[in-house]
Design goal:
Rossmann fold, 5-stranded parallel β-sheet, two-stranded antiparallel sheet, binds adenosine monophosphate
Length: 215
C-alpha cells in the first residue's frame, strides 16, 4: 500500500501515520522529522532547510524532493509506505508521480485529514515535542508521566519554534496557498478519502481500518 496523508498542520497527520504504520507494517516517511534531523545534524540539506522552517515556510522543493527520493530508494519501502507531510506543493506532487513511475508503483490513496481551526490552534500551541525521539505531547490532552520529560527517551520536552502562534498562523496560510490545491488533482484521480482530525486517539485505529479496508 502506498499512501499519502494530507491535511493542515495540527490536523493529526503524524499521529494517524504512526497508527497506520503500526497496523499495516509499512514505514512512515515524515518529511518534517527528516528535515528537523538534517537541521540538528548540520547537513547541507539541513543548513538550507533551517531558515525556511523557522519562518514556517515550505522548504525549497529541490531539497525536500531530494530527501524523499533518497528515502524511497531504500529496500524497506518496496512493498509500501506512508508519506506524512509530502507532497506539499504542486511541484512535489509531480515529483512524486515521477518517483513512483520509476519504481513501477502507483499511489493507492490520499487520506485527507480535516480539523476545525480552533482544534488546530489548540493542538499546535499546546503541543510539546521531544527534540530527540520526536514523541508528541499536549499540555492538556497528552501529558507525559513526569512534567516536561519525554516518556520514551527521558529528554526535556520543548515547544518547537514553529509552534509559536505567529508562525502557526503563517503555516496555515502556506497550507491554504500551496498545499490545498494539490487535493483537487488527487480528487480528479479518485484517490481521496476524507477522515476527521477531531477523533480521539483511541478512535483512530477503527476509522483507519474502515477507510483503508480492501487496499
Ligand atoms: P511538519 O512537522 O510537517 O509540520 O513540518 C515542519 C516544517 O518542515 C514545515 O513548516 C516546513 O518548513 C518543513 N516541511 C516539512 N515537510 C515539507 C515539505 N513536504 N515541503 C516543504 N517543507 C516541508
Amino acid at each position: 500500500m502506498r499512501l499519502v496523508i494530507l491535511g493542515p498542520p495540527g490536523s493529526g497527520k503524524g499521529t494517524r501515520a504512526k497508527i497506520i504504520g503500526r497496523i499495516f507494517g509499512y514505514p512512515v516517511v515524515t518529511t518534517g522529522a527528516m528535515l528537523r534531523e538534517a537541521v540538528a545534524a548540520g547537513t547541507e540539506y539541513g543548513k538550507i532547510a533551517e531558515g525556511y522552517m523557522k519562518k514556517g515556510e515550505l522548504v525549497r522543493d529541490d531539497v525536500v524532493i531530494g530527501i524523499v527520493e533518497e528515502r524511497l530508494r531504500k529496500p524497506d519501502v518496496e512493498e509500501g509506505f506512508i508519506l506524512d507531510g509530502f507532497p506539499r506543493s504542486v511541484n512535489q506532487a509531480r515529483a512524486l508521480d515521477r518517483i513512483l513511475n520509476k519504481m513501477g508503483a502507483i499511489l493507492d490513496v490520499v487520506m485527507y485529514v480535516t480539523a476545525k481551526p480552533e482544534t488546530i490552534l489548540s493542538r499546535l500551541s499546546l503541543r510539546r515535542s521531544c527534540p530527540k525521539c520526536g514523541a508528541i505531547y499536549h499540555l492538556k490532552d497528552i501529558l507525559p508521566k513526569v512534567e516536561g520529560v519525554c516518556d520514551e527517551c527521558g529528554s526535556k520536552l520543548v515547544q518547537r519554534d514553529d509552534d509559536k502562534e505567529a508562525i502557526i498562523l503563517h503555516r496555515l496560510e502556506v497550507y491554504e496557498q500551496q498545499t490545498f490545491p494539490i487535493l483537487e488533482r488527487y480528487e480528479r484521480l479518485g484517490k481521496v478519502r476524507e477522515v476527521s482530525g477531531e477523533l480521539k486517539i483511541d478512535e483512530i485505529p477503527g476509522e483507519v481500518e474502515r477507510v483503508l479496508k480492501g487496499l
